[in-house]
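Quick one:
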Amino acid sequence: MTRIYGLKNCDTCKKAVKSLQAAGVAHDFIDIRAEADLADRVPVWLAAVGGKALINTRSTTWRGLDETQRLRADSDPAGLLIETPTLIKRPVIENDDAVTVGWSQDVLNGLTSD
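Output:
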């Protein structure tokens, strides 16, 4: 089963869900603020893709952090992301043991070729 972690109001997440529905890919959508067990999932995602891919340094949330908080991206990325889930680049997609971050036609192709 494919799991999509994101925010319900995120345009990229909406696009991903719509594309998966159109392609007939069964999936669950999990809101990272309300439903996700981030203490469990974030370390798995970091191990799979790394902090550079998972932390959205182009977000409004990132721009609102002070320098001390930003330094945590290197020293404690899991703690930073668990405390501030809107810093997670979206969507995070789990499909079997694979984890991808972001949405593109390549991601869709990888999910539909299984």
